[in-house]
Specification:
mainly alpha; Rna Polymerase Sigma Factor, Chain: A; Arc Repressor Mutant, subunit A; 9 helices; elongated
Length: 180
């Protein structure tokens, strides 16, 4: 395909798209922390790419690209969740803003964080790991999990809370060797 000779590629747009690709894994991890459905998180990430491309000239080279992209991502997550209007309870938007405004990912590699999370998941007891996989990878609600496993929904919720607490502590101090 030949482009018209007067069509010059916009260097600002190319730079923003290059930075997006460079930080794509970190952005996906950030989006997935707010949207547990991985397929929806990937859709949101694609939308973030489009928004960043449209607003490429709003970003100033030399500023924190990842912080800007995460702000756009947070709005896109919120937009999808509003459109979807799920029946499940969600945190108030002000609470979500408070939680995530101070936790923008660093611009460093995310591979170490992912490896640490995988190690922590490996330290969970098999039943706790199964609950986490069902809830966050298969997007099953606690009531569904309880029905399939023969548990009470409250027992699933309690076990998931304990697993999340264990994972949070493990991620903060990746040295523990015990399992839940």
């Amino acid at each position: 395909m030949d482009f018209p000779p007067n069509l010059a590629l916009d260097p600002q747009l190319l730079r923003v798209q290059q930075l997006f690709l460079q930080h794509q894994e970190a952005l996906l991890a950030y989006v997935a922390s707010m949207e547990p459905n991985f397929s929806d998180a990937q859709d949101i990430l694609r939308e973030v790419f489009l928004v960043l491309s449209r607003k490429a000239h709003a970003w100033t080279d030399g500023t924190n690209f990842l912080a800007w992209a995460c702000t756009v991502a947070r709005y896109e997550v919120r937009n999808l969740q509003r459109k979807r209007s799920r029946q499940t309870a969600r945190l108030n938007e002000d609470v979500v803003d408070l939680l995530y405004s101070a936790e923008l990912p660093n611009e460093g590699p995310i591979q170490q964080q992912i490896a640490t999370l995988q190690t922590c998941l490996g330290r969970l007891a098999p039943t706790a790991r199964e609950l986490v996989i069902r809830r966050y990878h298969r997007d099953q609600l606690p009531a569904e999990i309880a029905s399939e496993m023969g548990w009470k929904p409250n027992a699933v919720s309690v076990a998931l809370t304990r697993a999340r607490h264990f994972l949070r502590e493990c991620l903060e101090r990746p040295s523990p060797v015990s399992t839940l």
